[in-house]
Queue: 4 jobs
Job 1
Amino acid sequence: MNNHLIYKLSWPNGYYYIGRTKNLEYRLKAHIYNCKKNKKNGQFQYVYNKHGIWDKVEILTEGFSAYAIVFVEQAYLNNHLNTKKCVNSSPSADGGSGNSGKKHTTATKTLMSNVRKGMKLTEEHKINLSKSKKNYWANPENRQQKSREMKKHYEDPKNRDRQREVTIEAMARPEVIEKCKRGTAKRWADPKAVERHKKGQAKRWADPIKREQHRKSQAKRWAKYRAKKKAKE
């Protein structure tokens, strides 16, 4: 039955918790019982001990099956866990380490996409997400790890072909092209962005290894282009 919902508990000082249930009254009583017994995990228990019971209960969305609601909650958690006021302790809606490595059906992917599209982030939330991403990429170890992951991913020809198809499909849509134009214009209108680009390019071309890599890449690209052109003649 599609009777599951996503709820939000809020404290006066801005702290909040997001959860799922099919019986909200029972779930709230369970929260209170566990808090009184000091059985809740992490920040939820800390906030309860310091500030008492929440003062506001909201139903964010409802009408989902027991299977679908897990992915709906995961979409909410993905957008809220990086904020300081969110007291959810687990990054995963199923209470584990997340859905990493799991393959979802097309129907599930569509459901998760629609949930995210329907979300409206507050300005404070957007700022917090931006700060979190900047802090992540400011760490050289994170950048190196991501670089290794992407190189390994694109070593597989299937992944390269799949990405190429997705890009071609996306760029065939007028709204995507318009969005790219606006983003590019906004970026180059920022003097700081222009200066960062100049410094990045100067640093890149000062590296002999980078120059050699670029030379080989261009030579390979043009050899492929000439061979293709010759085949058509």
Job 2
Amino acid sequence: MSEHHHAPNPPPDITALRLQMLAGGYFPVPVLRHDTAKASAGKRPTLMGWEKVCASADAAEIQRWTTDHQQRECTNTGVLCGEIVGLDLDVLDPDLAIQVQALADAMLPHTPLVRIGLAPKSLRAFRAELDFPHFRLSESLSIAPRRCPHAQ
């Protein structure tokens, strides 16, 4: 049997979530599910030319992702960067993470868009008006605003 026969059915609400994101001004990106044995599982899109496809995707395109056999394993959803900037707080030490999170809270506006993967690390998403570069404070403390160059 070929690999695509083993792909799970996408969650029934994944298309609705992606359409809701689009309606809210975000550009959803289909991302490879986390539990597949492929490189960067859970982290990367597999759609060819995804930067351009996702930046111009309409409802019909987004609905197609759920039924396209090459995209069926993409049951995670990312957000195309551009106006959206991610602030990674990649701090594993719990005490230091609390301090860094408090600093981010004091310096930045509130955002309900917070993702926690491997706690206490987190990612906060913001809308940005200006482009600014990625920066790293140290090897152990990475604060990385991200702006994807292909989303413009």
Job 3
Amino acid sequence: MRAALRPAVWEPRPRTPSSCSCCLAELAWFDYFRRPRTVSFGVEDFDRYPKGTTCFLAPRGLLLDAIDASRTRYADARHVNDDTPLIRWIAEREPIHVSPEFACDYRPRTTLRGFLRHSFHRGVVFVDGHGRRESRFFPVVVAFYPATVLLALATVRLTPIAIGAVAVVSVGAAGLGIVRQRSAREVTALALLSPLYALLHGAGMWRGLLMLAVGRGLHVRPAPPA
């Protein structure tokens, strides 16, 4: 923690009992989680390391400048991705530091209703944060829409395809949990919840696309946090 007190930008590693959220994070940021260590990264490798993990330390002036420069294409600023674009702006100017020795406790959603609402919301903000050419996940966002249209058309005509899609998500998530040496209870939770997460996250991404269409041409500055 002494290093965090110097004029630097620090992103903590989250500690969370939520196996689904944790394993998804480990998949998205595999370059870091396969070998957690103290490391600094910039905009060139920005999407390969954890960020938006509940706590973020930065010099006040730099953070205020980033908030002032932040823009969203959503007309309703309540649904913007309020961390990824902002931190990307900072990474263009200052290195971001992350270390397994600097962590924070994350309080996950503990009810099914809360989990489902959060899954949908994550899809909405994912489009705002990564539906930009500078994001490594931009091709994923672009490919998602035609792929899900084709999948939906196929499942309407062939029910086994829908069952197969659910099985692939479930088995894949459980396999990731096994590889990451999770407990049997956590692997079971991943297998059961991941298809629900994928469905709601996808619905949120479609909602995000609609919000982009409504706000087309807008570049709204999100309100600063209270």
Job 4
Amino acid sequence: MFISPHPLVADSSSHREHVLDRAVYVRYIYIMSMTSHEQPSKIIDLSVFVERADRAAGERPVAVAVSDMDGLAAINESFGREAAIRGLAAWERTLTGSLPGEAVVARVSGDEWAVALPGATAESALIVLEEIRSHFSSHRVDGIDADLDVSIGIAARPPHAPTVEEATRAAVEALMRAKREGRGRVVIYVEEKMTLKSNYYPRASLDRLSKLSSATGRTDASLLREALDDLFQKHREEL
């Protein structure tokens, strides 16, 4: 039963219409405020994403992708921080709304999202993510009078890495290649062989690296990437 806030107009149909109109208006303002203040999700540590992806995939193959918004600094400078945030939120909405339900998605830095697709190959992931990227880049975001696009790198376990963690590292490398090759594209990881010259490295170190590679079932390149990650972490204040 409708209860009027004022007893003198309890039976007034015009008052009821006014209240209903007011309710519609309040709802409209609420929706508009949610849209104008839309925020992307909170950033989580990459290691948390890896744990979630590993748990979701289990023993199945899994494709991992890492995306990065192209030209975000220029968008921020030209159209303002709020517009840049809307751009990020629009990409997240497009990404999460277009992926299979089993996908694991996480924002892992300001403009980077990581995706895990359990049961998918790198090639099938490329088809899905290229379709999503193309859709996003073909639609403008309110307040941004410029085209937005993303670069995406993909790797899979197997064949590119034996673990989700290493597949994620490989996806980041693929992302960097996508940036170098012109941005606005999706690329699959291709391992670049690291040439270890004996005049640069002691023979004993090369032998130990080879033994470690055999013992762990990992490539020399993946072991060296891990060593570089540790080195950068150790000296992160200088970077």
